[in-house]
Structures are given as structure tokens and as C-alpha cells.
Amino acid sequence: MKFTNGNQVSLLRNGTEYFPALEQAIDASSTEIQLQCYIFEADAAGIRIADALKRAAQRKVDVCVMLDGFGCKDTPKTFLADMSLAGVRLLIYRPKISPWTLRRHRLRRLHSKVAVVDGTTAFVGGINIIDDLNAPSLVPPRVDYAVQVHGPLVGVIRHHTNHLWRWLAWLHWRAHIPMKPLPNNNQTAGRMRAAFVFRDNALHRKDIEAAYLAAIKNAKSEIIIANAYFLPGLRFRHALSSASKRGVRVVLLLQAHVEFWLLNQASKALYASFLQDGIEIHEYQKSHMHSKVAVIDKQWATIGSSNIDPFSLMLAHEANVVVDDADFALLLRNDLETALQSGSRQLVSASWKRKGLLSRTMAWIGYGLVRLLMGMVGIGERNP
Description:
By secondary structure, this protein is an alpha+beta fold. The chain is built from 13 helices and 15 strands. It folds into two domains: 4-192, Endonuclease, Chain A, CATH 3.30.870.10; 197-376, Endonuclease, Chain A (2-Layer Sandwich).
């Protein structure tokens, strides 16, 4: 992970802040747009961004959109065809989505949410192109975060998105769009120190997890992690427990609403040991929490697409921004503290231990099944 100085990183809360900023950047584009996302829904938000992309393509802007085959399996083909007809270049990452295979390469997905416009502004986060009100379990609005980046880090992000586009275009026997030299890639835009960290299945398999582990191991006072799908491996669990035992306040803000039953149960199997080690667990109940963020020591913060589970840490393409800036960290921390105080319920060790035998059994059955599935696809041997 390489930090760059001279950046301006702005926090975007939910689609209510993200989509207007993204649309404005797209409408101001003059050269190129690169966008990657897992889900591109044909709802109000999706139509809004698709229309902006089509307008840009009709202005002769090179518009490259990469979507995941599984995440967009329900996106109407006519919706995507309309974008293509307007001049938007579309690539589908792993279009084969058979549910009857456990082959590891079929489970490797494009889960990152990244956009780069004209090489001067970039967006990274956990927000798909889907309306906040289009939430599971009918518990709107969804809670999520992204960042808008200006400064030298944009060039780093642009290089990554272009590399992935060229690789996928080659696999699909499609001509890739050459990366044009653009001005202002290294111009200072602020005073923030930030890094772009991503996970792939080649040379950067552990980068996001390593960034988390290094920050956790160096934590001196506080760790707050808000994550939608939380099933960390052994090293991650030990790092959190060790931090708590040396006097660091460790807070986990996890979602209460169940979207994936098996993963939810497996996660709950870890609660007792976390609580015993003094780690706070809060379940967010106000709505569906899709966040993948953390703040450590009121200085280090990360926002991105990576959950802390086997899918994100061992299989998927993910992208996070790490910000080393006290003002930014305080802004995000204040948001998380509000969620902890007004939208979540803290679990207490004594009451958790009194959970019924059925609840505890189902949690460990879920954990066992997840471990079994991980073994069947050949992952997790070193991350139990």
C-alpha cells in the first residue's frame, strides 16, 4: 500500500450524496469515463446514471462500463442494450453464473465499485448503482458510503481500472481503448494523505486484509469497524482480540437484518468469543446496513467495497481507499457513533450466553457449512 500526498477526499453518504456527485462528474466529462460495479439496477438511480452515461457517449466521450455477470444477472438486457446503442462500451465480468458449480473461478466476482472521470476525479466505495430505497427486506433506506477523490491518487486509480479493462477486453476478444495521456493527473488538490488498495486474484490477493491487519496491530486507543458481512479469518480475529486485550476499545457495527442466512449464522458463531475478549458488538437495526468502513485511532480510515468475509478477502475483485487524515477520520467516526447510539442495539455477553440451545446450534451449523463450502472450493485452509 503506497500513500500519496496532496489529495482531497470527500465523504459521500448513501446514494443521496453519491449519485448527484457522480452524475455531475459524468455530465462535466470531456474525454473518458471508466466505471466498475457489481450491481447496476434499472431503477430510478440506475436510469439516472445510465442516462448520464449515454449523454456522455453521445458527446464522443469514451465511456467504458464493466459489470459483474452475477450481480447484474437480473438487469434487463434491453436496459443494457440501450446503453450500448448510445455508444457506451460494456464488458461483463464472468457472465457464466450457473448455480450448480462450486468451481472457484466461477465464484470470483467483480465486487468493486469504482468510477474515474477524465483522470481528474474518482469515486470509490461500497455503493452499487441501485436506489437507496431498493433495499432487501423492505427496510429502506440502505446505509452505505463512498468517497470522491481529487489529486494524485486519481492517477493510481485510473491505472488500475484501465488495466482491468484491457485484461477483460483481451479475454473477450474485444479491442481495448488505449489509455490516453491526460493532463493534471499529479496536480495537488488538497492536503490529505491517502492510498488506493485493491484485491485481485493475481498479485494483490491479500492487500486489503494486510492493510486492515497493519492498522489494527498498530492501534493504540480505538478501532471501529462497520461491515455488512463479517466473517473474518483466524489472523483477523486474533488481531482484534489482541488489540482489545492491550486496552484498545474495539467496536464492531454489524447488520441485524438478515440477507444471507448462512453467512449471518456463521458470523454469530463468533460472537461469544469476541464478547469474552471485551470486544463490543452492536447490531444495526434501523435499516439495511451495507457499509464497509473503519476508523482507527481517530486518524486512519478506510472506505470501500470489501466486506470482511471469505468472498471479499479471498475471491472477489475489491477496492478500498485508505485515508490518513484526522479531520476525515473524525467525520466518518461521528457518523458511526450516531449509528451506534441511535440505530443499533449492543449485545451483552451475559445475555448472549443465555441464548437458547437452538440459536447456538444453528449458528455453529451455519459456521460449519460455510467452512465446508470454503473447503470445497479450495479456499480458507489458512484462514479458518
